[in-house]
Structures are given as structure tokens and as C-alpha cells.
Amino acid sequence: MNKFAIVLDSAADLPAALVAKYDLRVVPLHVTFGTTEYADGVDIQIDEFLDKLDALGANDGLPITSQPAPADFLAAYNALADEGYTEILSIHLSAALSGTYETARAAAEHVAKERGVRIEVFDSCSATVGQGAMVLEAACIARAGGTLDEALERIENVRRTHRIYFIPDSLTNLVKGGRASKIQGMATSLLNLKIVVSLTETGAIEVLHKAKGMKNAVNYIVGLMAQQSREMGPLVYYKLHTKAHKALDAMDKALAKTDAPLRSLTVATIGPTIATHVGLHAIGLFAYPEEFHNPELDDIATYLTPSF
What we know:
The chain has twelve helices and 13 strands. By secondary structure, the protein is α/β, with parallel strands linked by helices. A six-stranded mixed sheet has the order 10-9-8-13-11-12. Strands 2-1-6-7 form a four-stranded parallel sheet, sandwiched between helices. The chain has a three-stranded antiparallel sheet with strand order 4-3-5, covered by helices on one side. Helix 4 links the parallel strand 6 and strand 7. Helix 3 packs parallel to helix 4, helix 5 runs antiparallel to helix 6 and helix 9 crosses helix 10. The longest helix is centred in the C-terminal third of the chain and has 20 residues. The protein starts with a strand and ends with a helix.
């Protein structure tokens, strides 16, 4: 039995095979299309979500993502206490993007007091596989018999040093979601400008750059990752997308031109929490220093590379 259990929310976009391999406990967020609500990763998978997103009309509203209920976290923590765990590490979507972290923290305080269990609730300040990588790094330590404090130190280092970038194909979803004005959306559409979106150190969304066309935008984020490697040393990275195969080709060409010490781990699909905002045909990069990467995760492509 692992020395400590790991809880996460579904915004980490980890597939069932990885969840099972590391005995992770996932509390799902919820996604609502129209009047139909789905538990993320339970009632709807990433590829199904993207298909539904693709089918939306120009006048349709975006799907709505909502955080888990407090009872969901109470149930998860109590179940682990019932199984005999005395320590739990709960890793969550950026608190700047969702109330999930605060809901988990409140539930953890209650269960810790009632059951005498240590529960550490961790704000990843990230999302999608940025959050997922922190979960997996902690999971490797748990499975090897390491301590919760060792896992905390590792994921604090990943949180401090990771960078994650997204390039939406259009601003349609950001405009609909209220994160960009209609004027900005019209301007970028008419001029074929692509924006580069990142998450700040506190996990909030920010616009970093505007580039003429996807190729230039991709070159820009590859350049940012190369600069990161010059500052931090060799990096491992994930390519991210929402069915953006053409843009992935442009990214591969840009990556082939750099001599920075970068090692690709996999191509991953951006899940509902972020895909709702960046839309279809978006592309991105997530990277963190090789020194904080467990070699056990070198086979991550087996689990995360999408089949579509």
C-alpha cells in the first residue's frame, strides 16, 4: 500500500489507464451542454467533448464547466480514511481559474479534523497536463514508498519552474467566454493574428503575444521554451492540442530547428476545462526541467498520445 493517497480533479486530463496504474482518486468537474450535464471523464471523454464542441453553431453558447460539490470531496477523503490512509495529497486546478481548490480545501479541513487524517491540498497554479504532470510526479514517489513531504517538495519545484502556453486558432471561444472583447476577436480574425496565451505564476490566464499566422505564433512559443532551457537547463515537454494536426506539423518543424536541450515526452489532448476557452484547433506547449522529471514517466506517450 502506498504511504499516502493522491486525489485530483478531472481538469488534469489524465486517462483512466494512468489513474488505475497509480491508484489515483479523481473527483470530476462537470460539463454542461445546453441542459445536459456530464461528469468529466465519467459521462464524457475528451474526444467526445471535442466532437460536441465542433458541432456547436455560431450562435450557440459555450459549454459550461463547473467545480465539484463539497460532498464529492468529502466522499473521496472519507473513503480513503476508511481504507486506512492517514495521509492524503490533493492536487488541483489553478485556484485562479476555478473554485475547485477552495472547495477541496474546505472539505479537507473538515475530514482532517473529524478523522485525524493529514490532508495537504495543493494549488497547481496550472491546468490540463501541467496539473497532470505534478500528479504523476507525486504518484511516482508514492508508489516507490516515498513520503508525502518528498512529493510536496517535488511538485512545488515543478510548479515553480513549469511553463505552459496555448495558441487558440481563433478568439471565438475566448470572446464567447468573456475573456476577450468582440473587437479583439474581429481584429485578429481579419488580420490573421494569433494570440499566445499563458498561465501566470499564480495560474491566471494572460495574453503574452500576438503573431501574424499560426507558424509565427508557434515559432514564438518554441523560442520561449528554448529560452526557458537556457535559464533552467534541459527540459522535458509535452505538445498539446485540440485536434490541431496541421499546427502540430508547424510545431515539429520549429522544434527541429532549435538546438536547445529539449526532450519530447508526448502529444496530449487539452481537456474540457481549457478547451472550452481555447476552442478547436488550438495548440500549446508545456515544459519543466528534466531534473524534476521521474524517468518512470518516460513511457507517458503510451497513455497520453491521442488516437485521433
